[in-house]
Design a protein that fits this description.
Its main location: mitochondrion. This protein has 2 domains: 314 residues, ABC transporter transmembrane region fold (Up-down Bundle), CATH 1.20.1560; 250 residues, 3-Layer(aba) Sandwich (Rossmann fold). The longest helix has 54 residues. 66% of the residues lie in helices and 9% in strands. By secondary structure, the protein is α/β, with parallel strands linked by helices. Bound molecules: adenosine-5'-triphosphate. Adenosine-5'-triphosphate (ATP) binds next to helix 11.
């Protein structure tokens, strides 16, 4: 009865805590919620199997004691003894077989539920990371996030998978064992149980220490991953500077820090398991000593002492299992602390809320009104102060300025990657903060100076631009590639549009990447506004031509470095001292001998000698 009550109470607690954590995980994901009931069912079934297999295991010593008593009972004749012995052994074999099967089923079901929880944890965490605002990624290192996603989830998952199952079994067996010990001999039980309180205190102290150690280990591991990831992905820079050896020793240093923490953990675990092993042996010895005295006084039979010894053994194993369960659980919680933080974090900018304009209504007039902005990570250094700029619908505005003057920042604000600290940015008179950011970005085509292509086929990279990739036909992709002057070089690859690009595939030139990026931007339907950063790095005619086609009929803000781009624009805005210093047609700006634009052009040697002569 006592064992049953303890077990049921403990199972209910585990179920409650598990349920709450699971609901927390599932709160962001409909998929997780839909699978919640399913997982609780497998967990409950596993608990049922666990109860049965533990009952079988814990009844064994009692019946084995009976077997010993039958063997040692000198009062019965050999035939009767053989009959009782055979029937008891056959019955016990059957029960043991059922117990073994139940144990296997329990391990399987627990493992499956645990693996599903890990899978869900990873998917929910990834979704939570991708929803965060861009400023969050400015502050958080990529390696750290990768580590949370791979290592921390695995640690939390394994602590759930291995521990809940083993912990429940240990509680069931310890409870049942103590009850049976009390049943067989209360006085001997009281004597043996004196050892439990000091062991519990030791387990709690060690568990707490392991928890903080685990947190520190995971943090150091995240730093090591960050370092390795950054250096491997920038191997060309490392090679060019001949920094291989110093990078290897920097990584080795981080690995040493992890090793040192692992050593501390090993010391705690070694001490703890040494003490538990010793106490187990002392327990057995005490039973033999006290039990021997009780047997000598006829208070205990040989079978009862044997049963009691076996129960002591089981209880010892279960208590040791429980303390290791506690320490592993604490390690899991340590690794989990950062995970919960990340899971609970609400993004500061919404992802998919706000006004969506009816199809075809977007004209594309852009306006910055008295915008003041500083990056959240550098609040003390504003990039813009009271900046104002108007880009009429369908016009091309070339933005120029010295390096670091804020050209890219202007584009980031328009894409609403950040919100201004003061002032408003409007599109067709609508404050971008009121518009749905997802909808807004789907109407803004972007081509950056160094476009990023993913490690997949060219076809998938181009389709990435489409709002609804499933509705994109092969003809759409071919047409976009043709307009972007990319069709011919793509078809020249043996696998054509199915050629895999990126790290593991074909390496493309800067110009080829840009033309694929232009095709990708072209697939964005109804893109009234196009944000283009200058492609000066690749001075190819084919890229320029593709770019000009992309700009046709759209409002364009182009970060310009090339004279031809500037000449073709309807207006030029010059960024200086955190605001628009000059704005107008390029000839008008050039004619101002002391103007900033003219100086900038001269400095960048954009003006040919003849043009300078003519202007003089
Ligand atoms: N994510 C960021 N966090 C903090 N500061 C940033 C961030 N991005 C840019 N800055 C700072 O903001 C200022 C403007 O940067 P921005 O990249 O917009 O300039 P830019 O005119 O595009 O420069 P370039 O022509 O060299 O590309 C710079 O001082 C830069 O250091």
């Amino acid at each position: 009865c006592t064992a049953g009550c303890i077990f049921v109470l403990f199972s209910l607690c585990v179920l409650y805590v598990g349920n709450r954590s699971y609901c927390k995980l599932g709160s962001n994901s409909l998929y997780a919620q839909a699978h919640l009931a399913n997982k609780i069912n497998s967990f409950l079934t596993a608990v049922g199997f666990l109860t049965f297999s533990s009952a079988v295991t814990m009844s064994a010593p009692f019946f084995l004691g009976k077997v010993i008593d039958i063997i040692y009972n000198t009062g019965t004749d050999t035939e009767t003894m053989a009959t009782s012995l055979t029937s008891l052994c056959i019955m016990l074999t059957g029960v043991f077989l059922c117990g073994g099967a139940a144990n296997a089923a329990r391990v399987y079901l627990m493992q499956i539920s645990g693996d599903q929880i890990i899978r869900n944890l990873r998917a929910t965490l990834f979704s939570s990371i991708l929803r965060q605002e861009v400023a969050f990624f400015d502050r958080t290192r990529t390696g750290e996030l990768i580590n949370r996603l791979s290592s921390d989830t695995a640690r939390v998952g394994s602590s759930v998978t291995d521990n809940v199952s083993d912990g429940l079994r240990a509680v069931a067996q310890a409870g049942a064992g103590v009850s049976m010990m009390l049943y067989v001999s209360p006085s001997l039980t009281g004597f043996v149980l004196l050892i439990v309180p000091p062991m519990a205190v030791l387990a709690i102290v060690c568990g707490r220490y392991l928890r903080s150690l685990s947190k520190r280990t995971q943090d150091t591991l995240a730093e090591a991953t960050q370092l390795a990831e950054e250096r491997i992905s920038n191997i060309r820079t490392v090679r060019a500077f001949g920094k291989e050896l110093s990078e290897v020793s920097a990584y080795a240093q981080k690995a040493d820090e992890v090793l040192n923490l692992a050593r501390q953990e090993a010391v705690i675990r070694a001490g703890f398991f040494g003490v538990t092993g010793l106490s187990g042996n002392i327990m057995i010895l005490s039973v033999l000593y006290k039990g021997g005295l009780l047997m000598a006084n006829q208070h205990l039979t040989m079978g009862e002492l044997s049963s009691f010894l076996m129960y002591t053994f089981w209880v010892g194993i279960s208590i040791a299992g429980l303390s290791s369960f506690y320490s592993e659980l604490m390690k899991g919680l340590g690794a989990g602390a950062r995970l919960w933080e990340l899971l609970d974090r609400k993004p500061e900018l919404p992802l998919n809320e706000g006004i969506v304009l009816p199809p075809g209504q977007l004209k594309g007039q852009l306006e910055f009104c008295d915008v003041t902005f500083a990056y959240p990570s550098r609040k003390e250094a504003p990039v813009f102060e009271n900046l104002s700029l108007l880009v009429p619908a369908g016009s091309v505005m070339a933005v120029v300025g010295a390096s670091g003057s804020g050209k890219s920042t202007l584009v980031s604000l328009l894409l609403r990657l950040y919100d201004p600290d003061a002032g408003v940015i409007t599109i067709d008179g609508h404050d971008v903060r009121d518009l749905n950011p997802c909808w807004l970005r789907s109407h803004i085509g972007t081509v950056s100076q160094e476009p990023v292509l993913f490690s997949c086929s060219i076809r998938e990279n181009i389709t990435y631009g489409a709002v609804d990739p499933d509705s994109v036909t092969t003809e759409d992709i071919y047409r976009a590639a043709q307009v972007a002057n990319a069709y011919d070089f793509i078809q020249a690859f043996p696998k054509g549009f199915d050629t895999v690009v990126g790290e593991k595939g074909v390496l493309l030139s800067g110009g080829q990447k840009q033309r694929i990026a232009i095709a990708r931007a072209l697939l964005k339907v109804n893109t009234a506004v196009s944000l283009l950063s200058a492609l000066d790095a690749e001075n190819e005619f084919l890229v320029q031509e593709a770019l000009e086609r992309l700009m046709e009929g759209r409002t364009v803000v182009i970060i310009a470095h090339r004279l031809s781009t500037i000449q073709n624009a309807n207006a030029v805005a010059v960024l200086d001292q955190r605001r628009i210093a000059e704005c107008g047609q390029h000839t008008q700006l050039l004619s101002n001998r002391h103007g900033l634009f003219r100086k900038l052009m001269e400095k960048q040697a954009f003006l040919h000698e003849e043009q300078k002569q003519a202007l003089r």
